[in-house]
Amino acid sequence: MKSCPFSVVSFVFVIAILLPLVFSDLNSDQQALLGFANAVPHRRNLAWDPDTSVCSWVGISCDPNRTRVTSVRLPGIGLIGSIPPNTLGKLDALKALSLRSNRLSGSLPSDITSLPMLQYLYVQRNNFSGDIPASFPLQLNVLDLSFNSFTGNIPQMIRNLTQLTTLNLQNNSLSGPIPDLNLPKLKRLNVSYNHLNGSIPSSLEGFPNSSFVGNSFVCGGPLKACTLPPPPTSFSPPAAPPHKSSKLKLKMGVIIAIAAGGSVLLLLLGLIVVLCCLKKKDSGGTNVLKGKAPTGGRSEKPRAEFGSGVQEPEKNKLVFFEGCSYNFDLDDLLRASAEVLGKGSYGTAYKAVLEEATTVVVKRLKEVVVGKKDFEQQMEIVGRVGQHTNVVPLRAYYYSKDEKLLVYDYISNGSLSAFLHGNRGGGRTPLDWDSRIKISLGTARGIAHIHSVGGPKFTHGNIKATNVLLSQDLDGCISDVGLTPLMNVPATARSAGYRAPEVIETRKHSHKSDVYSFGVVLLEMLTGKAPLQSPGRDDMVDLPRWVQSVVREEWTAEVFDVELMRYQNIEEEMVQMLQIAMACVAKVPDMRPNMEEVVRMIEDIRQSDSENRPSSEENKSNVQTPDL
Ligand SMILES: *[C@@H]1O[C@H](CO)[C@@H](O)[C@H](O)[C@H]1NC(C)=O
Ligand SMILES: *[C@@H]1O[C@H](CO)[C@@H](O)[C@H](O)[C@H]1NC(C)=O
Ligand SMILES: *[C@@H]1O[C@H](CO)[C@@H](O)[C@H](O)[C@H]1NC(C)=O
Ligand SMILES: *[C@@H]1O[C@H](CO)[C@@H](O)[C@H](O)[C@H]1NC(C)=O
Ligand SMILES: *[C@@H]1O[C@H](CO)[C@@H](O)[C@H](O)[C@H]1NC(C)=O
Ligand SMILES: *[C@@H]1O[C@H](CO)[C@@H](O)[C@H](O)[C@H]1NC(C)=O
Ligand SMILES: *[C@@H]1O[C@H](CO)[C@@H](O)[C@H](O)[C@H]1NC(C)=O
Predict the structure, then answer these.
(1) Exposure check for the chain: N or C terminus, fewer CB within 10 A?
(2) Protein kinase domain: which residues (predicted)?
(3) Ligand 1 centroid distance, CA of 67 (Å)
């Protein structure tokens, strides 16, 4: 059980009060936040360290100049009790506040709802009570007070919030009439399950009946007609969304006809494509080049070949790393039965099965730009940093002018990419949430290890989901360590979505650019989406930007992989992981955490998790306590 660093917090607080200085605004923001953390108990440790910049704290973000705190997002961290005035209410540059899914109670302080810059306020799923404060800034975009215990009327003042796009008030105990909200931008409205009465104003008739249900005395509009005609209120045109037109229904028949015809055509096309592919595969499989046929029963397997550039095998031997238990030589390797595992930007990978059933992966590098000496030096470092359970170990290498081969352990489960994107909707078992956390944590540990052992200059440079391999017990292992500096790899579309903005500009890699790439892998894991939405098109949107745009509107739930929706009680963890990922893909390298910090943050998810999680899958998950 972790406890809040109470003494540190209060110590700094005292210092802050004693110093008779005029603080800059960022400092007063910091004080307000510490005051809040101090006064409101929370189940999860925030670990807000007063010695680090407030802008790097969990859940906090600042304006680009880092002069003010502009957003506070603390969903589902077990905040309990009431919010004292003069804490969060002092963050007067705040644009977004999310405290949803906590156990906050008491009244919602009006200094929060009237913050002058506030655009997004999410306090749903707490137990706030009392009246809804009647003070909101006019530019408010989203107001979500749903699933609380608010009472009283819906304030008329909401009619003045012309920028409002979302108003969620469902599942409270509000009473009185529904105000005539003639708000041009309002897209989402929900006042269901309250004690409201009266007729639905004509300006809101365009919303579906599920926006109003559960109020036994509300009538009109999409619900059953009121027994008495409602008094004329206004003749304003209905707000969005528009009514469904009957024209649409008429067209339906035509559309169905077209679709039916089209699908027959598609079916034919598909058949032709499949036939072509089968034929191609046939001829490709028999593409055996050099070397003897493999022994006995293996001969029917398609066989690939990777050693055609090996010359004078006497002089250029396979170089093994210390501690490696393999005892084959280059000849054995070249004789092994091999099949292509995949072609990557660095070359082709083969699965090679030697005699005595030893299986290894041989990578045949292309476009190596360094000479033998530099190559050997780099291999020496790679051998050293590869000694970690979450790094795919390099066992041996071969270097000659015409051929460069790397020998790795064979990791049977394939890559994270294949697990996430392969055969969606087919017979594949989706990767469950526990596995995803475990893989993320393992991979983060592997990267943190190579950063700390390799030193500040040693980067991975090519972190992506296809380079995250899954071990037998579904742990994440990072592969292709240390290859980037050897290669002259053109900016291929394949790794494009993973590259940090500064790498695209300068082509220089750093630990922080690795963190960015890892953040993209996390987003991929959370969303199930590929890092580039529509590769090759001009208007393509990369995953970080897409997620940012969605999260800014706080449709957070829409971000997550649909395959994760089947699991219970994981929303808070997913949001936490999302926050870590978003920190990793910050545009400015200095604002990204380092890998050690990322590891700690992911570990925190698991730790706070194992304490209380009424999850249905607790039995089958093999939650590992971090081995510290
Ligand atoms: C950031 O600083 C620059 C120059 O100091 C200023 O022009 C700009 O308005 C500032 N931006 C914000 C968001 O404060
Ligand atoms: C919510 O607060 C009300 C008092 O305002 C209390 O009666 C109720 O039990 C609380 N509900 C929960 C779930 O804590
Ligand atoms: C809302 O706007 C009306 C005029 O449009 C104004 O009379 C009223 O005072 C405003 N209410 C609030 C609470 O600002
Ligand atoms: C919302 O309120 C309705 C009516 O009381 C109830 O049926 C529903 O379960 C509530 N939803 C949640 C998530 O509490
Ligand atoms: C709504 O309920 C209040 C009391 O709760 C009552 O005074 C008012 O007349 C009702 N309005 C309508 C339109 O039924
Ligand atoms: C409004 O909230 C209720 C209760 O949670 C839900 O059943 C309904 O689908 C929501 N309606 C809309 C339009 O979101
Ligand atoms: C809401 O509308 C749907 C169809 O539009 C209808 O099936 C349903 O019965 C309605 N529910 C209520 C409570 O009016």
Answers:
(1) C
(2) 335-628
(3) 9
> Which of 114, 138, 157, 181 is the pocket-test mutation for ligand 3 (most atoms within 8 Å of CB)?
157
Answer for the pair 129, 151: CB distance below 8 angstroms, yes or no. yes
Please return the burial class of 271, using the count of CB atoms within 10 Å of its CB with bins 0-12, 13-18 and 19+.
exposed
| Token representation of residue 291 | 């070397």
The three-state secondary structure class of 21 is coil
Ligand 6 contact via 171 beta carbon (within 6 Å): yes
For the full predicted model, state whether its pTM sits above 0.70.
no
Amino acid residing at 440: S
Distance 166 CA to ligand 6 centre (A): 13
Span(s) in the chain for CATH 1.10.510.10: 322-610
Q: Does 373 show up as a binding residue in the annotation?
A: no
Q: What pLDDT digit, counting tens, does each position of 549-571 carry?
A: 877 766 667 788 888 877 777 87
The segment(s) of the chain belonging to CATH 3.80.10.10 are: 23-219
Q: Which residues, at least 6 apart from 340, have a Cβ–Cβ distance to it below 8 Å?
A: 304, 348, 349, 350, 351
Name the token pair of 66. 């880092």
Edge-to-edge strand ranges of the sheet holding 217-219: 80-81, 103-106, 127-131, 149-152, 173-176, 195-199, 217-219
- What pLDDT score was predicted for residue 400? 84
User: Which residue blocks in 316-395 are alpha helix, DSSP H?
Assistant: 330-335, 372-385
Pairing relation of β-strands 188-190 and 195-199?
unpaired
Alpha carbon separation from 479 to 118, 152, 331 (Å, rounded): 45, 59, 25
Q: Whose CA is nearest to atom 4 of ligand 3?
A: 160
Domain 322-610 falls under CATH 3.30.2350.10: no
Rounded CA-CA distance 326/618 in Å is 39
Q: Say which CATH architecture domain 23-219 belongs to.
A: Alpha-Beta Horseshoe (3.80)
Q: What is the pLDDT of residues 66-113, one digit of tens each?
A: 899 998 988 878 899 999 999 999 999 999 998 988 899 999 999 999
Q: Cβ(222)–Cβ(205) under 8 Å?
A: yes
Residue 530 CA to residue 549 CA, distance in Å, equals 16
Between 82 and 314, the more confident residue is 82
pLDDT by residue (tens digit) across 566-598? 777 787 788 889 999 999 999 999 999 999 999
- In 10 A of CB 496, how many CB atoms? 16
Across 240-263, average pLDDT: 40
Which token pair is 522?
């996390």
C-alpha span between 472 and 116 (Å, rounded): 54
**Residue 41: CB partners within 8 Å, gap ≥ 6?**
4, 79, 80, 81
Q: In terms of Cα–Cα distance, which of 543, 392, 406, 375 is closest to 472?
A: 392
CA of 223 to the centre of ligand 3 (A): 30
Mean pLDDT over 171-197 rounds to 94
